[in-house]
Amino acid sequence: MIAAQLLAYYFTELKDDQLKKIDKYLYAMRLSDETLLDITGRFRREMENGLSRDFNPTCSVKMLPTFVRSIPDGTERGDFIALDLGGSFFRILRVKVSHDKKQMVQMESQVYDTPEDIIHGTGIRLFDHVAECLGDFMEKQEIKDKKLPVGFTFSFPCRQTKLDEAVLITWTKKFKASGVEGADVVKLLNKAIKKRGDYDADIIAVVNDTVGTMMTCGFDDQRCEVGIIIGTGTNACYMEELRHIDLVEGDEGRMCINTEWGAFGDDGELEDIRTEFDKEIDRGSLNPGKQLFEKLTSGMYMGELVRLILVKMAKEGLLFEGRITPELLTKGKLTTKDVSAMEKKQRRFV
Questions:
Q1: Is residue 9 very low, low, confident or very high in pLDDT (cuts 50, 70, 90)?
Q2: Helices (H), strands (E): how many in the chain?
Q3: Is 139 left (phi over 0), alpha (psi -120 to 50) or beta?
Q4: Quick check: is 209 catalytic?
Q5: In a 10 Å sphere around its CB, with 0-12 CB exposed, 13-18 middle and 19+ buried, how is residue 243 labelled?
Q6: Residue of 215, 211, 243, 230 whose CA lies nearest to 64
Q7: Per residue in 247-300, pLDDT tens?
């Protein structure tokens, strides 16, 4: 009995000691409040540079004007189609807004796959796929004979000079279709739709997903003036006074700015906090040296970051008694969804 108690005590102490070693190892990756405040200051400076005509060309946070000049005021009505391209899936929605007795919103949606061979193929093939999915959706909704207004949420950095035009600056996340960077994505989609010839669509606006998020919330609460995405990638938008935006003519009124904060750090601003794991993630990505803040924080990269850390800790004998399985050595084997499930399960036992 005493021997059993001694063994139990020994293993408890060994476990506690192991936990302390692990905690000490991970401590170096934690950012102090002072460091976070310093990074906040750096980010604010980059935002100000992005709004400036003189500094915008060389800054990392591009602060792109969206030509969305106000949030919804609650009087909107009609029958619309919304396209959402940019994450893990392509989503199409039909949205009906009515005002019979009170404001009513009805939505029907369908999710379509975006296969890797399409998002890594040609731009023509990508937009043919989008047009095909839209045709399928309209057929199921029995609206192929109608020309409904379409809003296109395109979640990549674009330069805009008007609401229904968006020239892709660069692909991010998993997308790498050729022949799209430097082109107007609305024209590419219209061309793909026209080529089919079995339906028509009126693309009246193209916005970033952050803008779509802000506008959706603003429809219910007019105080909402910020939109943030933390998903496959990360980004934010907000309403800015026109007098602060050098890139757009005029001083009166406001405009929504798409910050494209995922690129924060591309000019070296975050080198002092990037770890060896962050750098390995970047080297193995589709766009090395770009979207560095996004690679530190978003869902597309979190699972792989955790896997790399686990491999290093196992090699140093801190985890799994130093044993490493072939699965753990496989890139992409551990996803952010897996990490989230582990965290959720751990909270149930705390």
A1: very low
A2: 10, 11
A3: alpha
A4: yes
A5: exposed
A6: 211
A7: 998 889 999 999 999 999 999 999 999 999 999 999 999 899 999 999 999 999
Which of 135, 139, 146, 229 has the alpha carbon at shortest distance from 189?
135
Q: In the predicted model, is pLDDT for residue 6 greater than 50?
A: no
| DSSP per-residue letters across 84-120 | EESSSEEEEEEEEEEESSSEEEEEEEEEEE--HHHHT
Query: What is the amino acid identity at position 156?
Result: F
Cite the beta strand spans of the chain per DSSP E. 64-65, 78-85, 89-99, 103-113, 149-154, 158-159, 167-168, 202-207, 226-230, 234-241, 254-258
DSSP code of 1? -
Q: How confident is the model at residue 101 (pLDDT cuts 50, 70, 90)?
A: low
**In this predicted structure, which of 44-53, 70-79, 126-135, 197-206 has the lowest mean pLDDT?**
70-79
pLDDT digits (tens, 9 = 90+) for 103-135: 678 889 999 999 999 999 999 999 999 999 999
> Among 164, 209, 266, 282, which one carries the catalytic annotation?
209
Query: Catalytic residue at 96?
Result: no
Give the position of tokens 């992409």: 332
Query: Which of 147, 156, 149 is closest to 114 using CA atoms?
Result: 156
CA–CA gap between residue 227 and residue 154 (Å, rounded): 15
Rounded Cα distance between 111 and 212, Å, is: 17
Q: What number is the average pLDDT over the span 23-32? A: 84
Pairing verdict, β 103-113 and 167-168:
unpaired
Tokens of 207: 């916005």
Other residues' Cβ atoms within 10 Å of the Cβ of residue 283: 9
The single residue of 62, 173, 290, 295 carrying the catalytic annotation is: 173
